[in-house]
Amino acid sequence: MATRYMVHDVDASVAFYRDQLGMILEEQWGPAMAIMSFGDERLWLAGPISSAAKPMPDGRTPEPGGWNRIVLEVDNFDELVDKLRVGGATFRNEPISGPGGRQVLVEDPSGNCIELFSSH
Length: 120
Description:
Layout: E1 2-6, H1 10-20, E2 24-29, E3 33-38, E4 41-46, E5 69-73, H2 77-86, E6 90-91, E7 96-98, E8 101-107, E9 113-118
Parallel strand pairs: 1-4, 5-9
Antiparallel strand pairs: 2-3, 3-4, 6-8, 7-8, 8-9
């Protein structure tokens, strides 16, 4: 299974997911699209010139952002949050704790939401 995110800039998004979140770049087709992996999960990053960005029959254009999100289960929650802060990442909230663990919402360079989660 894969998740697709619309992004403004494929290269900037690849750098963020690779360098900040530790994902692996599997494939990239220039500024149009890239496939990242995190364990068994795949994230497709589709830029503005990709086929996924073409207008819908009703005229709407797919765009980045929103509240749907991927959830990355991480063991190094505090270290990763600190690394992202130092790197200038935008957070939608402060880390919170609940019955299942800890979570925080961070945005990629295009404003797509990522939930970092740790059950520890």
